[in-house]
From TrEMBL:
<protein>
    <submittedName>
        <fullName>Phosphatidylethanolamine-binding protein</fullName>
    </submittedName>
</protein>
<dbReference type="InterPro" id="IPR036610">
    <property type="entry name" value="PEBP-like_sf"/>
</dbReference>
<dbReference type="Pfam" id="PF01161">
    <property type="entry name" value="PBP"/>
</dbReference>
<dbReference type="InterPro" id="IPR035810">
    <property type="entry name" value="PEBP_euk"/>
</dbReference>
<dbReference type="InterPro" id="IPR008914">
    <property type="entry name" value="PEBP"/>
</dbReference>
Length: 173
């Protein structure tokens, strides 16, 4: 987890992030893997390993590298923010019981940029999370601050996380 996120990351669980594919086997992230943009159409599914509680959980996905890793003035871009994820099977698969605050936004690093990191964080959901109004579906996804949001709404430290890298699409030939 980059220091710019200002998150105390000492995971207690393993977060699995899986992207469905149109004609291939789904892709489950290995932390730090680089995926082609077309492999991230999503939305992803989530599962946790090592769970001792069924949830609910909050999941966030942020891009700390916008518009480029060398000049991240628009970071963090919020690519997903959803609460009420609960474990629904023995394998630890998570199911979202409500609409996300920020529905999944596919990675789209601009042409000419290096690959961006996309970070997924799983938090224990506080009882009053559904009433929070700090971030709403109409709040801009640009210049989000995951650590500030987590502190303001009482999420605490993330329980798990993962990340991937996604490069811009190659130029059309």
């Amino acid at each position: 987890i980059p220091k710019t996120l200002a998150i105390n990351f000492k995971p207690k669980l393993l977060l699995e992030v899986t992207f469905p594919q149109e004609s291939e086997t789904a892709v489950t992230l290995k932390a730090g893997v680089q995926l082609a943009r077309n492999a991230t159409k999503g939305p992803p599914t989530f599962a946790i390993r090592g769970v001792r509680t069924p949830g609910p959980f909050v999941i966030a996905m942020v891009d700390p590298d916008a518009p480029t890793p060398q000049d991240p003035w628009a970071a963090q871009i919020r690519h997903y923010l959803g609460g009420n994820h609960t474990v629904y099977d023995r394998g630890g698969a998570l199911k979202n019981q409500t609409s996300a605050i920020t529905e999944y936004l596919q990675p789209g690093p601009p042409a000419g940029s290096d690959a961006h990191r996309y970070i997924f964080l799983l938090f224990k959901q506080p009882k009053d999370f559904a009433a929070q109004e700090v971030i709403t579906p109409s709040t801009s996804v640009v210049a989000f601050n995951i650590s500030g949001f987590a502190e303001t709404v009482g999420l605490g430290d993330p329980l798990a996380g993962s990340f991937m890298r996604v490069a811009p699409d190659p130029p059309a030939v």
